[in-house]
Specification:
The protein is α/β, with parallel strands linked by helices and 504 residues long. It has 3 domains: 139 residues, Rossmann fold; 147 residues, Hect, E3 ligase catalytic domain fold (Alpha-Beta Complex); 192 residues, no CATH class. It contains 16 helices and 15 strands. Helix 5 packs across helix 9, helix 11 runs antiparallel to helix 15 and helix 12 packs across helix 14.
Length: 504
């Protein structure tokens, strides 16, 4: 005996959606009292066919039990063109008719089959439009700093708040847990404790995880990389900017008070994914880890000093500073089995440009930049010791953040003006040149103020610069990167030409 297969599906139970029971009622009417088997999938999307009752129905079709499939509406059975085409091929193979109750399709005629294919195209379009709306809403809410759900980070609890007239939640510091976080950051920043050492320290001193978990290196690494704890200032802004992270808030908002959310792309993979390709948003809650301490730990997480001691390090202390001279995008590091081992390529290779025009081996470029920095250090031999501390000491106190914000804004405006030179006429060219000259003069004044304030805070520094010149070869990975961040704004490479833009 052959049966009518009545199929109904409902992904989410909402007031404006038709229930499974109502769908089956429509299908029973079309069966006109004939024998039926009902198949219902609740809580399953129509984007694919991985649904238990749908698969059971298809198995019954293959065993010859079904003569006709009846649905309330076409998109109840499939929203995918490919899945629908495969399904119809099986229907035809086993001589099974298909009927949509509300759309009245008859698959026995060419017009009916054509109309079915047209409707499934629009069903797929509707699904993709819904997905796009959900994604857009997610990013719009995240950029406002609204709570997006998920596990509350250690050191915080949830507190109700209102942002832009929207009731949401934000993180609030838990003193008992945050004190443990501060201890972990302090131990890791001094450079003498590995993650394993810190775990043993916590166990030895009976510092227990207050949420019942056990301390381990993976959990500590996650805490040390999370910007949800940092008091985000301009130094943090520049760090993520150099890493290629998209930053939603302007630099003027990085006042050293609020923490950050780092939203990772779904395609990010690996144990410690790079910040590149992600988006940084200032959070409504306050951070409790100073930026200098957070950055010191972050540099260790990104660039473990062991990488500087191996024959073939995995990273380069130049990452984040090297840009393609053609398209302006950052260069990324690749590994090969050749003698050189590592080389740089444009991150947009194959999209907006065809690379830099030549192979850039990391070892050769690092050697060249070491000599360039050594020469730059030699130029500063006559500076007072306190000012050298600003340039060379990784542990020197952070200078005035307000001045840093102004410097970052000036740099952004100069970059914007330079990008318009190619389209400028004579009048606009004159204005751009005049504006850049004024900005550059203001920039030098701010740098003098920055050095003056930092010198007053760093008067205990006594190592002469010529000693650092001699020691440059022996500096660690993070120390070289710290010196590079102080002196070099950007390194541009294209077609065999290299340009270094210094801050000083």
């Amino acid at each position: 005996m052959l049966y009518n297969a009545l199929y109904a599906r409902q992904s989410v139970e909402k007031k404006d959606s038709i229930s499974v029971e109502s769908q089956l009622a429509y299908c029973r009417y079309e069966a006109h009292g004939e024998a039926c088997i009902e198949y219902t999938d609740k809580g399953f999307s129509g984007k694919d066919t991985h649904r238990p009752e749908f698969e059971r129905m298809m198995q019954d079709i293959r065993t010859g039990k079904v003569k006709r499939v009846i649905v309330y509406k076409l998109d109840r059975i499939s929203r995918s063109i490919l899945d629908f085409a495969n399904m119809m091929e099986i229907f035809q193979q086993y001589h099974v008719e298909f009927l949509s109750s509300t759309e009245k399709f008859d698959t026995s005629t060419p017009i009916g089959r054509a109309m079915l294919h047209i409707c499934i195209v629009f069903a797929q379009l509707e699904r993709e439009t819904i997905q796009k709306r959900v994604t857009d809403a997610y990013y719009a809410r995240s950029r406002k700093g609204l709570y997006m759900g998920g596990r509350v980070p250690y050191g915080y609890r949830l507190a109700q708040t209102v942002i832009d007239n929207i009731h949401t939640a934000m993180y609030e510091e838990l003193p008992e847990e945050s004190e443990q976080i501060k201890l972990i950051y302090t131990l890791y920043a001094d450079g003498s404790h590995s993650l394993g050492d810190i775990v043993r320290y916590l166990h030895t001193h009976q510092i227990k995880h207050l949420r019942g978990s056990c301390w381990n290196t993976a959990r500590l690494s996650e805490m040390l990389r999370n910007p949800v704890y940092v008091q985000a200032d301009v130094d943090v802004y520049r760090f993520f900017q150099n890493q290629g992270t998209a930053i939603y808030n302007p630099v003027s908002d990085f006042t050293g008070t609020h923490a950050c959310y780092l939203y990772k792309e779904k395609s990010s993979s690996g144990k410690n994914p790079s910040p590149a390709g992600n988006e940084l948003v200032l959070a409504p809650h306050k951070g409790f880890i100073p930026s200098s301490l957070w950055l010191a730990c972050r540099f260790r997480c990104l660039n473990n000093r062991q990488s500087a001691k191996t024959c073939k390090p995995q990273n380069s202390w130049l990452l984040g500073k090297i840009k393609c001279g053609r398209c302006g995008y950052a260069l990324t590091l690749r590994k090969s089995n050749t003698k050189q081992g590592r080389y740089f390529v444009c991150s947009q290779s194959g999209k907006c440009c065809k690379g830099t025009g030549c192979t850039i081996y990391a070892n050769i470029l690092e050697s060249y930049m070491m000599e360039a920095i050594r020469r730059k250090l030699s130029e500063w031999e006559n500076l007072p010791a306190a000012q050298k501390a600003v340039c060379f000491s990784e542990t020197a106190p952070s200078p005035n953040n307000t001045i840093k914000i102004q410097l970052a804004q000036i740099d952004e405006e100069i970059d914007m003006l330079l990008s318009r030179l190619a389209e400028a006429d004579n009048v606009l060219m004159a204005y751009i040149n005049s504006r850049i000259s004024n900005l550059d003069a203001h920039r030098k004044t701010l740098l003098e103020q920055l050095l003056s304030q930092s010198a007053a805070a760093s008067s205990g520094f006594t190592i002469p610069s010529e000693n650092l010149v001699l020691q440059w070869q022996n500096l660690s990975f993070s120390e070289r990167q710290a010196v590079l961040d102080i002196f070099v704004k950007v390194i541009r490479i294209a077609d065999g030409h290299l340009e270094i833009e210094y801050y000083f």
